[in-house]
Amino acid sequence: MSPQIGVLALQGAVAEHVRALTASGAEVRTVRRPAELDGLRGLVVPGGESTAIARLAAPVQMMEHIHRAHQDGLALFGTCAGLILMAREVSDPAALAGFPRIGGLDVVARRNGYGSQLDSFTEQLDVTGLDEPLEAVFIRAPVIEEVGDGVEVLAESRGLSVAVREGRVLATSFHPELTPDHRLHQLFVDMVGAV
Amino acid sequence: MSTENTESPVSAEQGATTVNTGLAHMLKGGVIMDVVTPEQAKIAEEAGAVAVMALERVPADIRATGGVARMSDPDLISGIIETVSIPVMAKARIGHFVEAQVLEHLKVDYIDESEVLSPADYVHHIDKSKFSVPFVCGATNLGEALRRITEGASMIRSKGEAGTGDVSEAMKHIRTITAEIAELSSKAEDELYVAAKDLQAPYDLVKQVARDGRLPVVMFVAGGVATPADAAMMMQMGADGVFVGSGIFKSGNPAARAAAIVKATTYYDDPAVIAEVSKGLGEAMVGLNVADVPAPHRLAERGW
User: What is the pLDDT of residues A138-178, one digit of tens each?
Assistant: First the structure.
């Protein structure tokens, strides 16, 4: 049976994740309300603006609900803004101050760590577990500044960790949903199936 | 199937296209707000805006003041960039490639080649392919959108009629673009050559839109959106997101209205949420019926 995977759809690149997950054999639905988490085995938190997503999540305690569902077994995949919302700590917290995040990933992240849009870039990345390099699209990407002991680094770029896994959490500072190569989504679908 | 397109590295030019159209994807489902001061930019960010448009005067004031409207003071733009953590956009005049060069130098995240400012060239738009920074451009119909994409625009916004608070033109333009795409998709392949001629757009791009049933870039709606219900209606019409210009900071309670429009854009198909957020927002911008705007003062007609 295909695993049921949700995509948090408060704001951001939702459709691209839905497409990539569907192509990887998952049964996919979008999630905007806590009750819509019921029955899911995995959840993608997409790229977008983390400030906007956190503010939309707050009135319905969406981040707290995802956190609890994760503790009960929900696997998580965060890209870009999603990674920021899962990080143990955000080192430039001003714009996110006072807003709950999901947590679950023992890293310290800094928003827009590479600079403005002019510093956005693409790169061919070697990723642990993938035979061929993966085209990674970094857009106003966060920088992972610190990685905890229990976190496996799956890929590095320019001396920084850019893809990480810790238990049931997968996260990238780039956007695998923007390319037609769905191998990371397949990895997540397989992770969800194995939980 | 899942390993296609991994054989050769992308060229730098393709890479720039991917990150620039990609940033627009990250803004989807969101609201981009016009701001004229760093304080307003902060209010917009606090309300959940996905980006701000930095300018000296909102369209309603440009309309009221008259005269030539130009790119904003670099000090103002830099001040806003320093104040917020979300992307900052700024406007250049249609065809004014030096204003665009200045904005790129200031490291704005997106340039809006905008009909809201006075055009600098009544024949040509900026050759946007020459820039590393992405551009968003206005369009009233499919041909105009495809010409802008050909010139290098990474994002399209339907124009509406800026500075009016009257959503009817925004509705007209998104309906027009959506209908023209549907019509294109229904055509036989051998009819697309003439379709390209009629749209005054390149054949390959026309063929791509006919095949995909959508533009190859993200499309927001702009021009006249003033209430949560306006924003939700544009989302139900198929917009990827909304620009709100004068509608927020020309209203009675900008912070509350901004947050309400953000929520209505996310829950655009839920009347209960739209009703809830629409309560007690105070006065909307006074507004101006588009029908009362004499033709020479209609901004949407600027663009070629």
Answer: 999 999 999 999 999 999 999 999 999 999 999 999 999 99
Q: Is B108 left (phi over 0), alpha (psi -120 to 50) or beta?
A: beta
Interface subset of B 66-105, CB within 8 angstroms of A? 81, 84-87, 104
> What angle, rounded to 10 degrees, do the helices at B271-278 and B254-266 form?
180
Q: Could you give the angle at the alpha carbon of B8 between the alpha carbons of B6 and B9, nearest 5°?
A: 95
**Portion 23-52 of A in contact with B at CB < 8 A:** 23-24, 32, 47-49, 51-52
Letter string b/e over residues B40-60, b meaning 16 or more CB atoms within 10 A of that residue's CB:
bbbbbbebbbbbbbbbbbbbb
For this structure, is A80 an active site residue? yes
Distances from the Cα of A14 to the Cαs of A9, A28, A87, in angstroms? 6, 11, 20
Instruction: Count chain A–chain B contacts defined by CB atoms under 8 A.
Output: 143
ipTM above 0.90, yes or no: yes
pTM: 0.95
What is the chain B residue with the closest CA to A117? B109
The pLDDT of residue A2 is 84
